[in-house]
Amino acid sequence: MPEFELVERIRRRAAGRGDVVAGDVVLGIGDDAALLRVPAGKLLVVATDTLNSGVHFPDGTAAADIGWKALAVNLSDLAAMGAEPAWCTLSLSLPDGDVAWVDAFLDGFLGLASAHGVTLVGGDTTRGPLSICVTAHGFVEDGRALRRAGACVGDDIWVSGTLGDAAAALVLGAKAPGPMRERLDRPVPRVALGRALAGIATAAIDVSDGLLADLGHVCAASDVGADLDIDALPASPALLACFDAGARRALQATGGDDYELCFCAPADARGAVADAAHGAGVPVTRIGCVRHGTGVRAHDTGGAGWVAPRAGYAHFDAAD
Ligand code: ADP
Ligand code: MG
Asked: Is the minimum distance from the CB of 72 to ligand 1 under 6 angstroms?
């Protein structure tokens, strides 16, 4: 199908806030650019992520799952800023104009978009290797955005949901149990939790590259160190069933693609964090504390140091 018809097909399915939700889309798909209204008193929050075939999803991943994930990883970035999602754009590079593929892709993409009241307001459609670039836009009250900087010595470190399933699904391939595979193909952005934590958490990040690496970014931005209890990391029943403790710890601490929120909050905010998690319907687990110094130091419950077995993460290990 030619580009023009594909875009028309996308446009027809991309109704949203212009008509129903918020009235903030003055002009959506169809002109040279979109016209959008940012609410008074709010900051515009913008995040972009690209998914390349074979790099960010295995070859052969279902089109609907790719569509879901392309938006989910961007909404996860907005969640980590404490933002409320509003709009997105979609740049599609497609090897051919396969209508059935695009329709299935849109099922996943627009399904997640409508669940979060996000309107697709524009994009680009080109021929090339399969690649999807999404930009997500949201709002946050001025002064309430969650940044990587802001963690204070003595803060608790928390993580939402469970860690390691997506990386485990990659390791197990076709042998991965359904719920584990789902974590890889259909990550759930923690949007409601991020919103609820705005004004409570001192710093936050979404866990996309592995907990140690991402918590390391929070430490660097906040100019602090972290003590992490490796045995406190939350695991799903599927992960517990499929891996022994050693392999499990490595997947939880260094596996990527979790899209959980890792955040810091003062110890006297534990009740507020619990309320935020309850309200968002997402469990949270306390996994460590912020200390003076630099880097992430992991230990087991007995206090013995734990070093990630993967060489790529050596610079976040117990020695620094
Ligand atoms: P231009 O040559 O001006 O960039 P395009 O033909 O690329 O025009 O786009 C026409 C309209 O269709 C624009 O509003 C653009 O945002 C929208 N559009 C193109 N591709 C997509 C897509 N994949 N998803 C959503 N909107 C798209
Ligand atoms: Mg264009």
From this structure: no
Decide: 124 in ligand 1 pocket, CB within 6 A: yes
Q: Is any atom of ligand 1 closer than 6 Å to the C-beta of 121?
A: no
Residue range 59-73, pLDDT digits in tens? 889 999 999 999 999
Q: Kind of pairing, strands 203-207 and 260-265? A: antiparallel
| HSE (side-chain half, CA atoms, 13 Å) at 276 | 26
220 Cα: distance to centroid of ligand 2 (angstroms): 38
User: pLDDT value at position 1?
Assistant: 79
Q: What are the structure tokens assigned to 235, written together?
A: 């695991």
Question: Which tokens in the block code for residue 157?
Answer: 């470190």
Q: Which H or E run includes 178?
A: helix 178-185
Which atom in ligand 1 lies closest to the alpha carbon of residue 33? 14
Q: How far is CA 235 from CA 18, 238, 240, 270, 305, in A?
A: 41, 8, 7, 21, 20
32 in ligand 1 pocket by Cβ < 6 Å? Answer: yes
DSSP state of 217: H
Residue closest by Cα to atom 16 of ligand 1: 122
What angle do helix axes 99-115 and 3-13 make, rounded to 10 degrees?
30
Amino acid at 127: R
